[in-house]
Specification:
By secondary structure, the chain is mainly beta. It has two helices and eleven strands; from the N terminus they run αββαβββββββββ. The protein has helices at residues 2-17, 72-77; strands at residues 21-26, 31-36, 81-84, 89-91, 97-101, 104-109, 115-126, 132-143, 149-152, 158-161, 167-170. Strands 1, 2, 3, 4, 5, 6, 7, 8, 9, 10 and 11 form an eleven-stranded mixed β-sheet that branches. A hairpin with a 4-residue loop joins β1 (21-26) and β2. The N and C termini lie far apart (56 Å). Residues 1-30 and 34-65 have low confidence and may be disordered.
């Protein structure tokens, strides 16, 4: 009985935390960040719960959201492999650092815990989890994976984010 009650309590807390998400556009950094939204619940919060990230759309002047990431050049130096861009390129690599050279019309990154460094991309689709993707220029971005980071240079891309905990930001370093 005690295990069942604890299991139900844990399941209820997890369901409450995963109840929704929102998207925040940080105009000062041209960043789009997906953050969890606290769900309305009558259960007491878990004692180790972290405060939710702010969901304000106001610019956060002076905030460096790229400080924990390597620069594009540092990532290139760590590449396990370098490949040429081909039409309809799909990168399914897990746990690797992959450099893609050349302009690409359409790239899909579907790996897990990988780093992908791209040049200019018209359409980037990210379906993997735990990815960091760098692009020199990016026109359209679609993200459906979880805990992914996409860093671009240049103009802000059009973003379709159905993922969880997605971070999309301009690299000005």
């Amino acid at each position: 009985m005690r295990r069942t009650a604890l299991s139900l309590l844990a399941a209820g807390l997890v369901a409450g935390m995963l109840a929704g998400c929102s998207i925040r556009v940080d105009e000062g950094q041209d960043a789009v960040i997906s953050t969890p939204v606290p769900a309305a619940t009558t259960a007491a919060p878990a004692p180790t719960a972290q405060p939710a990230a702010p969901t304000s759309t106001a610019p956060s002047a002076g905030v460096d959201t790229t400080s924990d990431l390597r620069t594009r050049d540092e990532a290139i130096a760590l590449a396990d492999s370098t490949i040429a861009c081909t039409p309809g390129l799909v990168i399914p690599d897990d746990g690797r650092v992959v450099r893609v050279e050349g302009a690409c019309d359409d790239v899909t990154v579907s790996g897990f815990a990988a780093v992908v460094i791209l040049d200019d991309v018209s359409t980037l689709t990210v379906t993997g989890d735990g990815l960091v993707v760098y692009a020199k220029a990016l026109t359209d971005l679609s993200v459906s994976g979880d805990v992914n980071t996409v860093v671009w240079r240049g103009s802000a891309p059009r973003v379709d984010d159905t993922g969880v905990a997605t971070t999309v930001l301009r690299d000005e370093r």
